Request: fold
Amino acid sequence: MKILIINGPNLNLLGKREPEVYGDQSFEAYFENLKLKFKEVELEYFQSNIEGELIGKIQEVGFSYDGIVLNAAAYTHTSVGIGDAIKAVESPVVEVHISNTHQREQFRHVSYISPNAKGVILGFGLKSYELAIRSFLE
Ligand code: CA2
Reply:
């Protein structure tokens, strides 16, 4: 089973800023734990701050990987292009968010990802990613 985790803009700052919202662990450190937890899964990780790079990666892996775990970060609320890319590929995409976006500002209540995602997991901190991976296994 091959799964790619894709993180969008500013998630490279995890653990460095706003720990009250996003926690105090870097994604790289968390990703090492995930790999230990899911030894049976070929897990890969990609992060970009650039919308076109995220779309390119979805297209690149979206016809051969078993699943994509996507936190499109701020692009979740703006990107028709990422929403269309998810619709265009064959691999199922699970949308994740660290925070519960519905408890936050109104503009975060809209997602261009959700309509084309297999499912959505949000509000469980970094554990949201683990739950998303489990959803592919069960
Ligand atoms: O809760 C999530 O996972 C979000 O996707 C995070 C995005 C936000 O725009 C979405 O509404 C919800 C923001 C990611 C920014 O990450 C930072 C991490 C550390 C410091 C500053 C920003």
In short: Residues 2-137 form a domain with the Rossmann fold fold (CATH 3.40.50.9100). DSSP finds five helices and five strands in the chain. Residues 79 and 112 are 6 Å apart (CA to CA). Residues 10-11, 13-14, 17-18, 22, 71, 73-74, 76, 97-99, 101, 108 surround CA2 (CB under 6 Å).
